Amino acid sequence: MRKIKLIWDFRGPESAKIAEHHEKHLKEYIAIEQLPVDITGFDVLNDMYAIAWMVVTDDYMIAVRDALRPHRGELFG
């Protein structure tokens, strides 16, 4: 089964803090929805750009995409 990394982009001087905080909400969503994959993270790419992300399987991608509206996605792994 494919795993898809859903990504939220944050820009600006506070992007790292926002991405870190957003990951907490992603973890909460995974727990509430009881999703089978619980891989999340955030990456600071530079001082003005950071991302938060979560990994879902194909079976859950559409529902999570529609509920959380990520900016983009890519294959994971």
Secondary structure: elements and pairs:
Elements: E1 3-11, H1 15-33, E2 40-46, E3 49-57, H2 58-68, E4 72-75
Antiparallel strand pairs: 1-3, 1-4, 2-3
Short note summarizing the structure:
By secondary structure, this protein is of the alpha+beta class. The protein has helices at 15-33, 58-68, and strands at 3-11, 40-46, 49-57, 72-75.
In CATH, the architecture is 2-Layer Sandwich
Classified by CATH, the class is Alpha Beta
Number of domains: 1
Task: Kindly report the spatial arrangement of strands forming the biggest sheet.
Answer: 2-3-1-4
CATH topology: Alpha-Beta Plaits
Organism: Flavobacterium album
Protein name: YCII-related domain-containing protein
Could you characterize the architecture of this molecule?
This is YCII-related domain-containing protein. The chain has a 4-stranded antiparallel sheet with strand order 2-3-1-4. 25% of the residues are buried. With 77 residues, the chain is α+β, with helices and mostly antiparallel strands. It has helices at 15-33, 58-68, and strands at 3-11, 40-46, 49-57, 72-75. The chain has one domain: Alpha-Beta Plaits (2-Layer Sandwich).
